[in-house]
Amino acid sequence: MTNTLLSFGHGYSARALSRILLPQDWRIIGTTRSEDRAPRLMNAGIEPRIWPGADMIPALDAATHLLISAAPDAAGDPVLAALHDEISKRAGQFAWVGYLSTTGVYGDHQGQWVDEQTPLTPSTKRGMARVDAEAAWGAIPGLPLHIFRLAGIYGPGRGPFAKVRAGTARRIIKPNQIFSRTHVADIARVLAASIARPNPGAVYNVCDNDPAPPEDVIAYAANLLGLPVPAAEDFETADMTPMARSFYAESKKVRNDRIKDELGVDLLFPDYKSGLRALLAQEDDA
Hints:
Strand order of the largest sheet: 3-2-1-4-5-7-11
Largest sheet: 7 strands, parallel
CATH architecture of the domain at 4-154 and 182-208 and 254-269: 3-Layer(aba) Sandwich
Number of strands: 13
Number of helices: 11
Order of helices and strands: EHEHEHEHEEHEEHEEHEHEHEHH
CATH topology of the domain at 4-154 and 182-208 and 254-269: Rossmann fold
Strand content: 15-25%
Structural class: alpha/beta
Low-confidence stretches: none
CATH class of the domain at 4-154 and 182-208 and 254-269: Alpha Beta
Oligomer: single chain
Shape: globular
Distance between the termini: 38 Å
C-alpha cells in the first residue's frame, strides 16, 4: 500500500516535510484555502485540495498518515469541526497522526526551563486555543496521535535579514525575556523521524539547543550583514501593537531532549547562529 499523507493546512512546515517524503515515493495530498496556491503545490508534487470546499472523504479514505497544521480559530479546531466523525471512524486506518501545536501552551515561566511534562498554563488566547485543540484530538479513541509543540519557526524566507536590511528590525529589551526557536528543516526531520518510529500518545517539543533573548538574534543578524545593530528600545515604553506586545507576554526556555533521545534526531541547526549563517549562505548561492 502506498504511503499517503493527508496534510491539512499544507503550509511552511508541511512543505518542508514533503521535501523529505516525496523522494521516498510518498503520495501527499495537501489542503489550502487559496486557489492561487494550488498550482504551487502541484508543481512541488503535492495533490492540492481547496478546503474548506472540496469533498475530503476520498482523501481520508486513501490516507495512511495525517498531518494537521491548521490553527484553531474562535470555533475551535477547524478540521475536527468539519470532519470529527469521519476521522473518528477511520482512527484505526492511520499509521500515524501528527498535530502541530506550539510551545505557547506552557505559558509564562519567567525564563525558566520547561519540558513535555510541564503543566499547561497558557496566558494568551492563542495558547488556550491550542490546549483545547490538543485535548480534542487526544480524545478520539484509537487515533495514533503525536503532538509536536513548535517553538518560533524560522528558515528560508522567514528570517530577520529582510527587516534588518530595510532598517525596520527592532531590538526590544525586556529583562529576562527568552525565546526558543527552531529551523523549519529540523521540524521536518523530527516529523519524518516520528513517522518512521511511531509512538502514539507521544508529545515532543521541537526547538534548538539555544534559547536566547530576541534582541541577541537581531544583533547577530545585523553583524552577519555588516549593518548597524538596531538601537535598543525599552519594552515598557516602546510603541508596539497589541499583537506585537503579546509575543513578549511569555518567557521560557524549552527542553528538546526527547526528540534527540527517543527519535534520534541530530539537529542540523542546533542554535540560531548556525541557522542564520546557513540562511545567509543560501542567499549567496541563489
